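User: For my dataset I need records formatted as: sequence, then structure tokens, nothing else. Please produce one.
Assistant:
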Amino acid sequence: MQLLDCIETQLIANRLPLVGVSIAAVPYANTPVVLTLHWHGFVETRLADVTDANVVAYQPVPSSALQLNERWDRLEELENAVLDVAWELGSWDLARREAPPFIRPGSTTQESVECMGAFGNSPVAIAGQPPVVAEVPDADDLIETAGRSGYLQWMFRPVRGGLWSEVADDLTLENGGYRNPPCPVIAAPAKPGSRRRMVYQLGRSDKVAI
């Protein structure tokens, strides 16, 4: 998958550091994957739409959610692609969340809100503005499928192109906050529809006991 190319294209276009990256997928081969980029930055709110007007507030730059329609045949194949990207962008670790279907007895509102947010259709607004700018044409179908079958979400914090470049203490990083491929960690089997969280350790520091 061209995850790395897509992320780097967005970095060039937005010229903002990333706080984090998340990828969400339903457990069916060759279905669309949603890539969400969480930016560090603020937009000025002014009293009037003129250059010298007083700034009255700062609003966080919304995240960007993009639908990727590339082919993948197995969850392990998809996860290995995500591991490769997290590795190359210098992330300390990669977290995988396996979420159960929210269309079931006893589910909570939070579960449905988290699912909608994972696929770029968050119902929550911040100061009246959506927290995500989404280009996910199949969001409704993906959310409905996830609501019945569960979904997986991967999350990592990049050093290269990220907010963490100034504080990274990682012996595996090259100058510039990246790592050379291939990633030495491989995907572990997932259980779609379960409620589990798994963390893959990627970085290494002589100040942290692993």
